[in-house]
Amino acid sequence: MKKMDEMELKFRDQSIRYSWAFMIFTLFIYEFFHVMHYGKFDFISVVVNVAVGVQIASFLWLKHRADKTDKEPGRVLIGTIVIVVVVLTLGMIGLMFHGK
To answer: Which of UniProt's keywords are assigned here (predicted)?
Structure first.
C-alpha cells in the first residue's frame, strides 16, 4: 500500500508542476499582449513576479531546512527572502496608488 501512496504523491506533484507552468505561461502571454496593446504594465505582472519569487524562496527555504549538512551560502536564502519582501511591499504600495 505504501508504493501506491508514493506513486499518487508523484502524480500529484507532477500535475501541480504542469498546472503551475501553464498558469505562469498564460499570465505571461496575457501580460505581454496587454503591454503591447495599452503600453503599460498591469497588476498581473506583480502577481506573476510575486508567485515566482515565493516559489523560489519557499523551495530554497524547505531545501535548506531538510538538509542540515547543506553548506549552501546563507546569503542566497536571505537574499531571496529580502527580494520577495521588497516585491511584496512594492506591490502593496502600487495597489494603494492604483487608479488615482
So the answer is: Membrane, Transmembrane, Transmembrane helix
